[in-house]
Amino acid sequence: MGPFHLPAIPDDISVIAFGDVHGCYDKLEILLEKIEERLAALPERRHIVVSVGDLVDRGPDSARVVERLTAGLPGCELVVLKGNHEAMMLEFIRGGEDAEAWLHNGGLRTLASYGIDLERTLAEGPTLHGLRRAFLDAIPEHHLAFLAKMPLSYACGDYFFVHAGVRPGRPPDRQNEEDLLWIRNEFLDWDGDFGKRIVHGHTPVDIATFKPNRINLDTGACFGGPLTAVLLEGTEATIF
């Protein structure tokens, strides 16, 4: 048997990935300022910054979080993945069958962050129709375009970045959208090889989980925990 292969990022690349923001703008801004300092100090490297999704809902400033990330991050490649909360928000905007589910999972706080007077809007007519109309009037077009173009996954070296996880037994590049956005126990309980080391969020933990086959970065920022990021360089994976 050959030597154990440590997951690695190509030598000339630095990747910083961060977990679920959920409207916690202040925590995001502190992290981005720290990232910008590192970019300025190491201009010779190729820097990639990855959000594993769930920018919105539950926290107080979802609109500001989206606006901040639509502006990009000078000096790096910014990859913002779709989370299940962005998927629910887009379903609400489209008026899909499960549109109301978003409102019961933090969506009302997102509506409020876009300046919607919930009490007045709810008093004016049917809940879904009135809220959807108010939201479409309030959300900027560039936010809609940004959210609609979010990729479901990103790969770099021996790492695969996604919101929730992957289904065991399928290569990372052959996963379905439902699993990438929503999977939990089947993924979390699996100790085998996924083909790449998975970096994900979605399931809150007290501190970031580092396992040979995956890294969980959701440390419950909207529940009072930190917004956690990991720095990946070569075979090293460390909290940033």
Supply database-style keywords:
240 residues; alpha/beta; Purple Acid Phosphatase, chain A, domain 2; 5-stranded mixed sheet; 9 helices; globular; phosphatase activity; Serine/threonine protein phosphatase; Ser/Thr-sp_prot-phosphatase
Describe this structure in words.
It is a single chain. By secondary structure, this protein is of the alpha/beta class. It has a domain at 13-83 and 152-239: Purple Acid Phosphatase, chain A, domain 2. It is built from nine helices and ten strands. It has a five-stranded mixed beta sheet, covered by helices on one side. A five-stranded mixed beta sheet has the order 4-5-6-8-7, with no helix packed on it. Helix 1 links the parallel strand 1 and strand 2 (46-51). Helix 3 packs across helix 4 and helix 5 (118-124) packs across helix 6 (127-138). The two termini are 34 Å apart. The mean pLDDT is 94.
Question: Topology of this structure?
Answer:
Elements: E1 13-18, H1 25-41, E2 46-51, H2 62-70, E3 77-80, H3 84-94, H4 99-113, H5 118-124, H6 127-138, H7 141-148, E4 153-156, E5 159-162, H8 177-182, H9 185-188, E6 197-200, E7 209-211, E8 214-216, E9 229-233, E10 236-239
Parallel strand pairs: 1-2, 2-3, 5-6, 6-8
Antiparallel strand pairs: 1-9, 4-5, 7-8, 9-10
Helix pairs in contact: 3-4, 5-6
Give the N-to-C terminal Cα separation. 34 Å
Structural class: alpha/beta
Strand order of the largest sheet: 3-2-1-9-10
CATH topology of one domain: Purple Acid Phosphatase, chain A, domain 2
Number of strands: 10
Helix content: 25-40%
Q: Which stretches are low in confidence, meaning pLDDT under 50 for 5 or more residues running?
A: none
- The CATH architecture assignment of one domain turns out to be 4-Layer Sandwich
Largest sheet: 5 strands, mixed
The fraction of residues in strands falls at 15-25%
